[in-house]
């Protein structure tokens, strides 16, 4: 399975709910940074139970943050499906990771979506898409989007999805941080900084920019209510955002709960050479800054979890 990362084009966060979550208006955009998840029948029952997990990929220190026990979201996806269908049998799950870990790009959620679809096939469950989406929502707020991909607005805690059609392709640069941020801690910091947060509202300017495939308007409309909380926990991100903006990015923001920073460098009807030049300038400035562990480029949107 191939499954994409996401960046949030708008993340409006309401007040804390009684269940510990926050109501959101969450505009997800799937980008061409993919994890590959391979699920195969285990030759014998793994010591660890239903699933045996392995991880690879060129993400350096990030890989040590991936748990290889039952808390991994892929193991939780397999366990949930086995419990609900009674059809589970032992599997080996290999994650070839390219999505930063604890980076605000929903890498774990992407892997969970991939594992859900792969086990559904391997075990011959053939569940309806609606049921897979419900199970995905139980696993995490970002997991349903990883199944559908493209560009979509998520309401509730982000799991109630509605597609947002747009004709354009957009190009992005991502600055990966050497640090990880815990999503729960970033939401808690948001509550501390914004105890009287208003109800979240969709941004009409963002919807118009997407509908017109206008990269300049999209760059101006990007917004993330969690950015202040992420910057409060990792102040150096401010300089990362400034570096990409000064180098010519059309828009810059922290992706989701961070700490990955996203820079829009073009798209829509712009000439490819214009986009390439802007992209090269932003990449060079970020690499020279010494602020990030790695700099990668990607485009969006792309489809959700896909069987290879
Ligand atoms: C920040 C985002 O990535 C933006 O897309 C998501 O809202 C987070 O989605 P996720 O990682 O799938 O998060 P979950 O695993 O569902 O929740 C992790 C924790 O984040 C907080 N959380 C998450 C989603 C939400 N709407 N409100 C929250 O307050 C809660 O403290 C929760 O315990
Ligand atoms: N398959 C997985 N890949 C990466 N991390 C995982 C996985 N399963 C569980 N985790 C745990 O989840 C934590 C968050 O990882 P993830 O990469 O999903 O963060 P994130 O991109 O910030 O999430 P989100 O954007 O959805 O808030 C990691 O620190 C790790 O402990």
UniProtKB/TrEMBL annotation:
Source organism, top-level taxon: Bacteria
Membrane spanning residue stretches: none
Family from the record: Belongs to the GHMP kinase family. IspE subfamily.
Positions of ATP binding: 100-110
Reactions catalysed according to its record: 4-CDP-2-C-methyl-D-erythritol + ATP = 4-CDP-2-C-methyl-D-erythritol 2-phosphate + ADP + H(+)
Keywords in alphabetical order: ATP-binding, Isoprene biosynthesis, Kinase, Nucleotide-binding, Transferase
Domain called GHMP kinase N-terminal: residue spans: 72-149
Residue intervals of the GHMP kinase C-terminal domain: 207-269
Keyword ATP-binding: yes
GO biological processes: isopentenyl diphosphate biosynthetic process, methylerythritol 4-phosphate pathway; terpenoid biosynthetic process
Record pathway: Isoprenoid biosynthesis; isopentenyl diphosphate biosynthesis via DXP pathway; isopentenyl diphosphate from 1-deoxy-D-xylulose 5-phosphate: step 3/6
EC identifiers of the protein: 2.7.1.148
Enzyme class: transferase
GO molecular function, one term: 4-(cytidine 5'-diphospho)-2-C-methyl-D-erythritol kinase activity
Role played: Catalyzes the phosphorylation of the position 2 hydroxy group of 4-diphosphocytidyl-2C-methyl-D-erythritol.
Protein name in the entry: 4-diphosphocytidyl-2-C-methyl-D-erythritol kinase
InterPro entries with a match to the protein in the record: GHMP_kinase_C_dom, GHMP_kinase_C_sf, GHMP_kinase_N_dom, IspE, Ribosomal_Su5_D2-typ_SF, Ribsml_uS5_D2-typ_fold_subgr
Active site residues per record: 6, 142
């Amino acid at each position: 399975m191939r499954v994409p990362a996401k960046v949030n084009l708008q993340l409006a966060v309401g007040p804390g709910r009684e269940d510990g979550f926050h109501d959101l208006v969450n505009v997800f955009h799937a980008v061409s940074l993919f994890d590959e998840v391979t699920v195969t029948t285990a030759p014998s029952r793994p010591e660890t139970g239903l699933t045996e997990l392995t991880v690879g990929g060129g993400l350096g220190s990030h890989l040590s943050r991936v748990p290889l026990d039952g808390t991994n979201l892929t193991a939780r996806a397999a366990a949930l499906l086995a419990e609900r269908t009674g059809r589970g049998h032992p599997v080996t799950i290999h994650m070839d990771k390219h999505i930063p870990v604890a980076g605000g790009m929903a890498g774990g959620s992407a892997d969970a979506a991939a594992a859900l679809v792969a086990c559904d096939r391997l075990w011959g469950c053939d569940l309806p898409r609606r049921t897979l989406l419900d199970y995905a929502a139980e696993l995490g707020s970002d997991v349903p989007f990883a199944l559908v991909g493209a560009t979509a607005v998520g309401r509730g805690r982000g799991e109630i999805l509605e597609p947002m059609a747009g004709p354009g392709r957009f190009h992005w640069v991502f600055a990966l941080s050497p640090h990880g941020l815990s999503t729960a801690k970033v939401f808690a910091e948001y509550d501390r900084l914004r105890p009287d947060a208003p109800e979240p509202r969709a941004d009409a300017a963002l919807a118009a920019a997407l509908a017109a495939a206008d990269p300049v308007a999209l760059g101006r409309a990007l917004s993330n209510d969690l950015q202040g909380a992420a910057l409060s926990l990792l102040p150096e991100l401010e300089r990362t955002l400034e570096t990409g903006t000064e180098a010519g990015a059309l828009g810059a923001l922290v992706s989701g709960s961070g700490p990955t920073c996203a820079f829009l460098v073009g798209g829509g009807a712009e000439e490819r050479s214009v986009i390439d030049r802007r992209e090269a300038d932003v990449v060079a400035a970020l690499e020279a800054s010494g602020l990030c562990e790695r700099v990668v480029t990607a485009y969006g949107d792309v489809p959700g979890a896909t069987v290879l």
